[in-house]
Amino acid sequence: MEENWMELExxxxxxxxxxxxxxxxxxxxxxxxxxxxxxxIAQALSEVSETELPLLFxxxxxxxxxxxxxxxxxxxxxxxxxxxxxxELKEVLDEIYVDDAVDLIEEMPATVVKRILRHTNPEMxxxxxxxxxxxKDSAGSMMTTEYVDLKKNxxxxxxxxxxxxxxxxxxxxxxCYVTDRDxxxxxxxxxxxxxLADEEQVIEDIMETNITYVGTxxxxxxxxxxxxxxxxxxxxxVDGEDRLVGIVTVDDAIDVLQEETTEDxxxxxxxxxxxxxxxxxxxxxxxxNRFFWLLFLMLxxxxxxxxxxxxxxxxxxxxxxxxxxxxxMGTAGNCSSQSSTMIIRGLALEEIKFKDFxxxxxxxxxxxLLVGVILALVNGVRLLLMYSNNAEVLxxxxxxxxxxxxxxxxxxxxxxxxxxxxxxxxxxxxxxxxPALMAAxxxxxILDTCSVLIFFSIAMAIIGI
Amino acid sequence: MEENWMELExxxxxxxxxxxxxxxxxxxxxxxxxxxxxxxIAQALSEVSETELPLLFxxxxxxxxxxxxxxxxxxxxxxxxxxxxxxELKEVLDEIYVDDAVDLIEEMPATVVKRILRHTNPEMxxxxxxxxxxxKDSAGSMMTTEYVDLKKNxxxxxxxxxxxxxxxxxxxxxxCYVTDRDxxxxxxxxxxxxxLADEEQVIEDIMETNITYVGTxxxxxxxxxxxxxxxxxxxxxVDGEDRLVGIVTVDDAIDVLQEETTEDxxxxxxxxxxxxxxxxxxxxxxxxNRFFWLLFLMLxxxxxxxxxxxxxxxxxxxxxxxxxxxxxMGTAGNCSSQSSTMIIRGLALEEIKFKDFxxxxxxxxxxxLLVGVILALVNGVRLLLMYSNNAEVLxxxxxxxxxxxxxxxxxxxxxxxxxxxxxxxxxxxxxxxxPALMAAxxxxxILDTCSVLIFFSIAMAIIGI
Lengths: 465, 465
Fold this sequence. Notes:
2 copies of one chain form a homodimer.
Chain A: H1 2-22, H2 26-34, H3 38-45, H4 52-59, H5 62-71, H6 74-83, H7 86-95, H8 98-107, H9 110-118, H10 122-132, H11 139-142, E1 149-150, H12 156-166, E2 175-179, E3 185-190, H13 191-196, H14 203-206, E4 214-215, H15 220-230, E5 234-238, E6 244-249, H16 250-268, H17 283-310, H18 312-317, H19 320-348, H20 357-387, H21 391-396, H22 399-430, H23 440-463
Parallel strand pairs in A: 1-2, 4-5
Antiparallel strand pairs in A: 2-3, 5-6
């Protein structure tokens, strides 16, 4: 329901906008646009032609224009900047937050960046240059420098005066930060507490001094996860000398959580992650991001082929054996994928830690035994139903041998698959590798080899070929 | 680094707490606990024994105790409630928000629920009963009824007076909702706007009237995604007659986003999702959640076995053919898993919609051709290197046939795998099924069968067995 609504909205919206534009009903168009959210306008604008884009954009009121600009895709942003007059560019840049300006600059080509920096005011340029110095995935790179800072000897009334004076440009005013003379963070106070406090009270007496904060170099994924864990609206970022340099807000944390999960999911499917969305990524880039894993896994799979070849005499004598291979390899892959996926997600959410290694392994072994034995029994019944009257097969091997060989193989393979499926991601975590790489594609390739080895070894031993 | 810090913290914390408790340094212990975040205290308490748990819990100041209680796992909560006196239970319940109370009640056994309801005040009991009526995954079930409501003829000063009077118990005060006489939502105003406005201004003149809101029955995943899209701190929930009945806050939205992603990831690995964390889930439950998919896929895989059997004459005559099967099946599985994963995630993030069907399919076909042809070439080189001096193999089949058969099979299989990998999730979405079910395990089972069929058909045609 919601999906249809969103889809219809976006298309109807666009149609309506273009109709009003072509009929030159600019007043009505502006009225319509101001009722909309910047994200929705940006989405609609991403579909219009290059001649209509600047026309429509110029109709937006200043603040909404800047908000919409920030939500647009990089190509549209670059095109719009080239279409802007210097005055227009300056107007947009004056309205956007420093962290959004940094994101923009990181995506634009060098000539555009120069033009952007030329039209930002000196103070903002200084902040932008500072933020650009932090590593790409750090807290420093995702923070904004626009927060409200207070001094500990201010009264509540003075704080409100300061918020009223400086708050309009701040990304959030709901958490205010108390710093000392050296800009060191010494406390924080929420607007809620300020509102509920007496006007005469001094900040020092009501501020919270047990502060959770992060360093500028902290990994942005860890920062984002703190929002999930502690339900913050913002978190302060300090430099090496505990001086407050910025804040990270919850909206950016949500974006990072979603992006990091998307990256993990791509890695788990043996795809090199990109930042662009699926549709925006070219065929070449998609192919490149997928090719190397496919090649590596294809070549690894020939090992399994080689092992099967080694047992040529066995399956030429008893061809029915080959029929078991897809089932065993498939079950091995599915079992390992189940375990590794649960473990990788648990590690990402920090529900599982390396110290739980033995606990997890013991759990997986028990699950595997339970599942493996039942699968073996069901498979035994299937064999009885399918082959007990099949003279051709029974001439090759007895029903008892068939059931025992495939049953034992199944149990062995399931236990191995689930063990490897939990061991590899946890070891990867311990070795500071990304656990998401130890997922289904790699594991099933490893387990294909193991399955064939286990199956033919058991078959040779029991049937005695 | 951060992980170690968190791990050490939790364990050191616990140690420190227990030492202080056993030395009866209660004052110091309370001092230490009040510097901590409720989430961290709850985690530490989840490790202590049942005799120590109530002792430690009773040391917490009232408000922190309630916050900590809400963060604990269900077993500890149930145990603590049984250990509480009526007075203690009432104190905790008085401090918690309605939506947290509802979450608690949904997890507790009936006798505990009765005791909880007996000790909540009548107004809260009414709210709880109301919220319990909404379906489990609806906006109604995740909202809270504690918000600030204003009337349109109030001045800014009157609004602040109202916030000061009623705000202390509200989950958020930063967005205030303006309702008419029939409780219908007619506007909203942020505390930031109130602070920046003149004290004498009337709310009607400054409130935002273009409001994004949701209905009580809206799917909670869609609601959560609106926070991701629009960067809200809270979103109002209205009933069938547009009356404001509650709000959803961003912290709950983050939880839902994370939970829904975890569910999707589990489904993509052919595991039935649970709400409990990995370590809290019993071996039986894990086994049950994994078994049926494994059984279904194992039995489906026997179809592939059956098809191989059909080509018994072919591979008994040319045993080298069997050696290609793992490579072809593996590549098919990996290709389909890459495509389906990217599509499923794109659909979940609403970056891809059903109307993009043909665009996506055409993209995947081109990616597949590109990747397939290069893989076929690499594979050809590998065959030349491995078998050009292998008389046994060359007695069965010519090098040219080997390269052409495996190359054509590879290309065909890759194109099929990537096509099915994008078609099935998109069709599932269209049919209101969960696209996450159309992931690697199911697809690779389907593609195993297709791979074997394609490979042996091409082999029969070209080698002419």
